[in-house]
Amino acid sequence: MRRRHLLALSAAAPLALGRPATPRAAVPPRRPIVLVHGAWHGGWCWREVAAALRAAGHAVFAPTLTGMGERAHLAVPEVSLATHAEDVAGLIRCEELQDVLLVGHSYAGYVVSLAADRIKPALAGLVYLDALLPEAGQAFLDEATATQLRATAARGFLLPPPGLDFFGVPETHPNAAWVKRRLTPHPLGTLTEPVRYAAGGPAGVAKVFVRCTQGAEQPDKERAMIAGDPEWRFVTLDAGHDAMITAPEATARLLAALA
Q1: Report for 6-10, 206-210, 217-221: range of highest mean pLDDT
Q2: Most distant pair of Cα atoms in the chain: their distance
Q3: CATH topology (fold) of 29-258
Q4: Which stretch of DSSP H or E encloses residue 84?
Q5: Which residues are catalytic?
Q6: With 0-12 CB in 10 A as exposed, 13-18 as middle and 19+ as buried, what is 141?
Q7: Phi and psi (nearest 5°) for 10?
Q8: Distance CA 247, CA 48 (A)
Q9: Each residue of 4-26: pLDDT tens digit?
Q10: What is the mean predicted confidence (pLDDT) over 147-175?
Q11: pTM, whole model, 2 decimals?
């Protein structure tokens, strides 16, 4: 039976070749995009943005950081900012990605900055989507604030998610209940670890800060931090803080244009 089957395939092979294919114009590959979520979220929050970017031809990765989202069962006191930075750097290494546009939302401004320190040659650029900008040697929280939060945190290190208004998602939004069901506590240790770079952090990489203007605080601390730095561009997006939820089409268009 095996020999007969092989002979049949051999006989049919010339027919399968058919007419020579018409040459197609080469389509340049689209830049891969890695989307990193903020505090209390998971990779799930990028669902609509990722779908739109993939439809445009980009390879898109939206990892969930350790101890959050569907990985909440991995939350332990030892989860740190370095853990989350390695989540991102490890993904880029494992997938052997190059020329990456690395996007960090909110808290993930810290994550992508530290990840960039580890995998800088693989990056084409960084996008800080309404994100926090770290200062080398400093943690997000001072020790006094961290001590206060430990006293009320679940198991001493898990910060409960705030209300939807904190994220700029109206209670009347069609995805409001979907977001509520998926928010998970945030590991406090990620906010108390000082940022320490071994290779200059994100320095030397082109960077764009995207300010979501709905509900934005004034004065704009992050805009002031990057003013006059030629490595930075500052753009705005008419959306609330969780732009990937409330304005996914506009967010995807902006990221595709930046890629």
Answers
A1: 206-210
A2: 79
A3: Rossmann fold (3.40.50)
A4: helix 81-94
A5: 106
A6: middle
A7: -65, -40
A8: 9
A9: 443 333 344 333 334 444 445 45
A10: 95
A11: 0.88
Read off the tokens for 69: 């989202």
- DSSP helix/strand/coil, 167: helix
- Residue 104's H or E segment, with its range, is strand 100-105
**Cα(165)–Cα(216) distance, integer angstroms:** 13
Instruction: Estimate the crossing angle of helix 108-119 against helix 81-94, to 10 degrees.
Output: 50
Compute the distance between CA of residue 99 and CA of residue 119 in angstroms, rounded to an integer. 11
Tokens 């004065």 label which residue?
219
Residue 231 phi, psi dihedral angles, 5° rounding: -80, -10
Domain ranges in the chain are: 29-258
What SS3 class is residue 187? strand
Nearest to 254 by CA among 39, 105, 42, 92: 105
| The dihedral sign for the CA sequence 93, 69, 165, 239 | positive
Query: How far is the C-alpha of 104 from the C-alpha of 254, rounded, in Å?
Result: 14
Q: Please give the C-alpha separations between residue 153 and each of 8, 91, 138, 139, in angstroms, as whole numbers.
A: 69, 30, 22, 18
Distance, CA of 141 to chain centre: 21
